[in-house]
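ok so i was messing around last nite and threw this chain in just to see what happens. nothing serious, just curious
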Amino acid sequence: ALFKGSRDLVDGEFQAMQSTVIAPDSLITGGTSIGARCLIGAATVIDDCIIGDAVTIEDGAHLSHSFIAHGATISAGTVKNGHYLSKKLDLPIPL
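result:
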């Protein structure tokens, strides 16, 4: 789905900013917030994450309770729970 407008709330589960493209078979839950100009790949599962602007999450990634910094790329098949991810860092977040 392609979300346009300054802010959209979809099914009360997550928020996506303008110009973000989300594959129709992705599962996004838990109050996840997705920044502008992001690309969320096919078969991606995202739960309770904050995702910055211009982030690419490739196919099949599974992310939960994590913060993804602006401009980061998450490789296909990545599985992370409770991490801070950026272009240069992959740090566990104490929960």
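not much to say yet. The domain at 2-81 is CATH 2.160.10.10 (UDP N-Acetylglucosamine Acyltransferase; domain 1).
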